[in-house]
Amino acid sequence: MAGLQNEEGNNNVCIGYEAGYNEIGSNRLHIANTRNSTLIYGQFDQNRVGIATTRPGNTLDVAGGIDINDYIRHNMDENTYLGFPSLDEIRMITAGNSRLSIKPNGNVGIGTDLPQEKLHVNGNIRVNRLVNNSDIKYKKNISYLSSEVQKLTKVKGVRYQMDVEKYPDNGFRDQEMFGFLAQDLREVYPNLVVEDEFGHLSIDYIGLIPVLVENSKRKTKEIEEIKEALNDLKINYENLLKKIVHLSDHKSKKQTKEKVEIQNKREAILYANKPNPFTEVTKISFYLPAECSSATLHIFDINGRPLRQKVIEDRGKVEVKIYGNELSAGIYLYTLVVDDKEVDTKRMILTR
Asked: What average pLDDT does this structure show over 311-322?
């Protein structure tokens, strides 16, 4: 009864009662005990075998599950296989090294056979985006950070390298890195440090982000307050300078009147600098009679320390320019000395 209907095909193999009963092709294999289903079907010309199917789509096509007691190995590489080392455990091996391990509790290890989390990777991970569940409906006991931010100053950042020689199987890279020591961080933020069943510590670096954000906001507020205080000081400083200039102009006018009288007696005169206060450049003017033999302009800081001096060769009405980029902002004194005698001293104010 095997291959009963096949009158034109050839090179067929049919094993079992009514095996290949309806087969009309060639180069086929049927193992069955009924005409209605085939246990094993083969296509000799395509090198394909089907188990519980007569339409194999690959070299081996199984219409159902497969039970394996040990491992599945690549016939060209004995060091690459899929193993089942224990009940409910799967392990993928390449080049003789364990690459992927799935434990009975559902933990998955990449580069480790002892995964401590749902996904445990010994090595680096590269992703385009990493997201955490953060919907408020999943959370309770919510409070905003305050004291946690103040403790941030106790955290010490370090530069380090992983001990590759001591732990060659941990997937470490021998390169300089920045971070924290878990033991130190646990003293400040214990909820950001995780300890596994072997006593090894890990850090939840993402958990530090809210603390850093709140600290940044706090520092920004402090900076704004400092800026506001500095602006108030600047306003007070400018008002004080205006008062000083007003008093200086009043005194200068009085002195100028006196100097005009002295000028008639052919004496040297020092005038107030203009503009005053100044930012970029100001001019110091003075009159030197032709009869004087020497003249020097001296500049001092507000405490009377000499900063520079300039010998004046010209006579008559003379101007000397003082540039703001050569001095720091502040109040300065300048004195005209003629024939080793001080003629006058005045103030000038440099602002920014």
From this structure: 92
